[in-house]
Amino acid sequence: MFQPASRIANIASPATIAMAARARELKAEGKDIISLALGQPDFASPPQALEGAIEEVRAGHTGYPPIPGQKSLLEAVAHKFKRDNELDVSLSQLMVANGGKQIIFNAFMASIEQGDEVIVPSPYWVSYPLIAQMFGGKAVHVPCYEHNNFRLDPADLAKAITPKTRWIVLNFPNNPTGAILEKSDLEAIAEVIRKAPHVLVMSDEIYEHLTFDGKKHLSLAQVAPDLMDRILIVNGVSKAYAMTGWRVGFAAGPEKLIKAMIKVQGNVSSGICTLAQGGACAALNGNLTEVEAMRNVYEKRRNRAVEFLRAIDGVSCAMPQGAFYAYPGFAAIMNKRTASGRLVTNDVELAEALLEEQHLATVPGSAFGLGPHLRLSFAASEQQLSEAYERLKRFVESFS
Known about the structure:
Elements: H1 6-9, H2 15-28, E1 34-35, H3 47-58, H4 71-85, E2 94-97, H5 99-111, E3 117-122, H6 127-134, E4 138-143, H7 154-160, E5 165-171, H8 183-194, E6 200-204, H9 220-223, E7 231-236, E8 249-252, H10 255-268, H11 274-285, H12 289-310, E9 325-326, E10 336-337, E11 343-344, H13 347-358, E12 360-361, E13 363-364, E14 374-377, H14 382-397
Parallel strand pairs: 1-12, 3-4, 3-5, 5-6, 6-7
Antiparallel strand pairs: 2-8, 7-8, 9-14, 10-11, 13-14
């Protein structure tokens, strides 16, 4: 009988996918399900991206692509880093992959030895610790708290670094909290990193264009260019360009690391779909008008979400400054019962009860390393969001 390899057997499936799957099951049973569980933009991909993919077909570019990426796309990525982040990167410092997740996979596979530590500030996107674990790494969590708007405290980061630390993962704007880091935060974090020359930094900036209140994303590499030889920037077209299904991620980093990551990719998936590369190239070379229009919509939804959540007794909510998630806290209603008499002692039970009793799908905060919270995506229609908030209000107010 088949037994999975030991490195896989104890790795859980991402909770975001599990909750979405349960919501689909209930929907198939005829239940009126609203899902705020996935980070899926509810906008169409840019017209220029569609045309870029079509042009690849017309040109007959349907053969195997170069593993690091087509030159035209790598040039578009270099242009993007110069335009958006004021960074000069050579093509030899770049690669593209099947989404940002494969970039992370490639980087960890190329660098982690058994027992290496990966510092992951929590709350975190679910896949960072899971992928590190696949290669024998150990995730070390550094909590970021609601009262500090979920920003990373440099002193806490410094305490977590040991001789075994291989990576520090930074994800700002953050999934699931929407937290960002100010220039002063990044400068303080850079000072910590300078004192640990054996440590690499993964800066996941996939939500860089989705920031609110007039704030602009800053990359650690901009603030601390002297650390460029230890920083891997992870990005892609999924979130800001509403191109999740195209599966195009890209990275900029030290040439030696990029070469090792390309070697990994050459033995895992080879180059990514040429049509998707053409679409991503067109999107990155275009202006940011459509991105800004989406950002404006998300900001309005963010404002409404926070106002609504803060008005519910027993719910706290920090103000998300980026991405498209709210991360409300529910500590005040733990160890109470729902209207059906179900006892809720943690946020997993909270999310399950909310789905079963109000048919609203969310993700428990403990899946991201910090509860009792729920992650609510506001990448959904106004009608869906309005109904979702009413269901959540009824649910919380029913506790006794």
